[in-house]
């Protein structure tokens, strides 16, 4: 126990941007509460990514653990988020499992009162058990996706049904999915898929854990929050949207959130010149890597629509000597023709800052949970374009449950097969027009703005997420007698 009488929370992030960003926000949330000491446990190569996200005034300690790359015969860089994005994920998960002994050593040294660890570290429940401390699971998705995943895993509706689409059994709201919209771990179960095995271990380890921390807020998905607790029996605390909690406290302290710097101020300056709700923001998260042929279709759709856009593309920034014609993924002359209307960001964009601007009226998203929730948090309507994992579930939440987005309808507009498969410009343009120019989009923006207000209330003192974190901290303090 901490001699100062603080509750000591240790946090173990998984090294992919979509997991790391919100769990570090969670660390900041804990650290912002009185009587809580927070330590993030991570490896040397990840430490700079972690500290970049922590304001210097936040009292968060970083405990370094050694990554045993050599012993395991994997490249040293396989511990970082960049590796996760670019290379065989199987190897990455193998590497992640190697952190078990270093974690145990760190826990023995720092002796925290509880461990918050990513769901992708199922073995960490046993580590916590060894030291007699509770482990809290962080999944990185919301209630709707958590519930859908359990219902699919338990009932396997895609196995019993020959028909194209099925209604997810047990799940409230008669949600329809097609087998192709399921994550690989569910779709390819019988083939001895390593992800299926991981998902099984994750489910088992959740049973041995103290509870689940959810980055959502109750008012967003009350039916699914209830279902998760009452029908699926998961003890949990919704403390989100975590990005909003931190941004607001950082604003109060006179600091910018993450993503400040040259490019942010350029983006904001550019957005200042645009009318409210006139710009569409297009970004597919930290992992999605579209083929050049798909990027060309997106470019053609944007040009033909003719409205204003900010488009984030996972490409290296152009060097001074490079011209547009050397960039194969962009139609020649595109940037000249759209100079007034469009801004292309090559690499990493200050997403939260852009999304929050009043000029942005729509968001084309891959429906990663962080992006989805960030969009909701600032009241934006969406065109949903899921690519993998639980993104198809998040799409359903946005389109079928919340009514704040419309799908790009990949199955209707797809051309080609395999690596040559693209969603055609025409389909993309139709979705963008419907969202940005029509009454339908206006109504979605109205609803999204209502959710924004609910999100803000949830994180204020007395709001559901704020109280939920207080309850969790009280419970943990009582449990560990601090
Ligand atoms: N993000 C960003 N700039 C980018 C791309 C992504 O700030 O150019 C952030 C985004 O705000 C979100 C996270 O990276 O917090 C992506 O997480 P998400 O769950 O949406 O998708 P993933 O990357 O896991 O597929």
Structure, described:
With 482 residues, the protein is of the alpha/beta class. It contains 23 helices and 17 strands. It has helices at 17-31, 47-52, 69-72, 81-86, 89-97, 100-110, 124-130, 143-155, 157-160, 184-187, 194-207, 222-231, 242-252, 262-272, 292-305, 334-337, 351-356, 369-377, 391-401, 410-413, 425-437, 439-459, 464-479, and strands at residues 7-12, 36-43, 60-65, 114-118, 135-138, 166-167, 176-177, 211-214, 236-238, 279-283, 308-313, 342-346, 360-365, 381-384, 405-407, 414-415, 422-423. The strands form four sheets. It has a seven-stranded parallel β-sheet with strand order 3-2-1-4-5-8-9, sandwiched between helices. Strands 12-11-10-13-14-15 form a six-stranded parallel β-sheet, with helices on both faces. It has a two-stranded antiparallel sheet with strand order 6-7. α1 packs across α13, α6 packs parallel to α7 (124-130) and α8 crosses α12 (222-231). It binds uridine-5'-diphosphate (UDP). InterPro entries: UDP_glucos_trans (IPR002213).
Q: What are the SSEs and their pairings?
A:
Layout: E1 7-12, H1 17-31, E2 36-43, H2 47-52, E3 60-65, H3 69-72, H4 81-86, H5 89-97, H6 100-110, E4 114-118, H7 124-130, E5 135-138, H8 143-155, H9 157-160, E6 166-167, E7 176-177, H10 184-187, H11 194-207, E8 211-214, H12 222-231, E9 236-238, H13 242-252, H14 262-272, E10 279-283, H15 292-305, E11 308-313, H16 334-337, E12 342-346, H17 351-356, E13 360-365, H18 369-377, E14 381-384, H19 391-401, E15 405-407, H20 410-413, E16 414-415, E17 422-423, H21 425-437, H22 439-459, H23 464-479
Parallel strand pairs: 1-2, 1-4, 2-3, 4-5, 5-8, 8-9, 10-11, 10-13, 11-12, 13-14, 14-15
Antiparallel strand pairs: 6-7, 16-17
Pfam family, one: UDPGT
GO molecular function, one term: UDP-glucosyltransferase activity
Keywords: Glycosyltransferase, Transferase
